[in-house]
């Protein structure tokens, strides 16, 4: 069995345990679900060679579901250049975006993040796609759906927040050093979908 297949099996078993912990009323069953949850967590940590102590999927006592992040691909009028932000902590670039806030739509999240990270007031043009991101497919540590919008800039750039230290336009075919938050393969797939006016999903 390949490592990815084993990971998927363990994660499904842990999902069942978490559902049982949320909905079961029987004390004996709750004890068993907790043991299964703890065992699968230990297995995942050994398999991934990392510890899951941060507040993500592995520690939430709710129905297990992927987290949602949103990115905005802001293009110039000719759709030949893209506006990217440089992360202050890594010195690498990405599309403006981040985790979706509770009660905000995906579109509103894209608008908010573009303003905060790039100082850009944007108009959403279309949904480019929804990508399924898991630890074995990407560099993320939490199962995640990535929602990507194409957008265009309205007016001039304004001041942005401290998480980013540069905002610049780049040719679609000549991108700067990229952040690990969105993998190169994903970037290429997103750019290709934009060039061909396609919607991507998996």
Query: What do we call the CATH topology of the largest domain?
Result: Nucleoside Triphosphate Pyrophosphohydrolase
In terms of per-residue confidence, which ranges show pLDDT below 50 for 5 or more consecutive residues? none
Percent helix range: 25-40%
Radius of gyration, in Å, reads 19 Å
Second CATH tier, the architecture of the largest domain: Alpha-Beta Complex
Tell me the structural class: alpha+beta
CATH superfamily heading of the largest domain: Nucleoside Triphosphate Pyrophosphohydrolase
Mean pLDDT: 87
Strand content of the residues, in percent? Answer: 25-35%
Q: How many helices does DSSP assign? A: 4
Please tell me about this protein's structure.
With 202 residues, the chain is α+β, with helices and mostly antiparallel strands. It has two domains: 57 residues, no CATH class; 135 residues, Nucleoside Triphosphate Pyrophosphohydrolase (Alpha-Beta Complex), CATH 3.90.79. Strands 1, 2, 3, 4, 5, 6, 7 and 8 form an eight-stranded mixed beta sheet that branches. The longest helix has 22 residues. It is elongated, with a radius of gyration of 19 Å.
């Amino acid at each position: 069995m390949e490592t990815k297949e084993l990971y998927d099996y363990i994660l499904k078993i842990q999902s069942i345990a978490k559902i049982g912990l949320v909905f079961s009323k029987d004390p004996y069953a709750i004890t068993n679900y907790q043991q299964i949850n703890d065992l699968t967590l230990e297995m995942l940590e050994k398999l991934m060679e990392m510890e899951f102590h941060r507040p993500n999927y592995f520690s939430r006592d709710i129905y297990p579901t992927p987290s949602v992040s949103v990115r905005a691909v802001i293009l110039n009028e000719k759709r030949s250049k893209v506006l990217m932000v440089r992360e202050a902590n890594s010195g690498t670039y990405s599309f403006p975006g981040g985790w979706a806030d509770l009660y905000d739509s995906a579109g509103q999240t894209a608008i908010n993040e573009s303003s905060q990270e790039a100082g850009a007031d944007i108009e959403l043009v279309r949904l480019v796609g929804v990508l399924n991101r898991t630890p074995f497919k990407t560099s993320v540590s939490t199962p995640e759906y990535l929602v990507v919008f194409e957008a265009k800039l309205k007016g001039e750039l304004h001041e942005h927040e401290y998480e980013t230290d540069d905002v610049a336009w780049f040719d679609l075919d000549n991108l700067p050093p990229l952040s690990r938050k969105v993998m190169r393969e994903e970037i290429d797939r997103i750019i290709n979908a934009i060039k061909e006016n396609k919607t991507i999903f998996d």
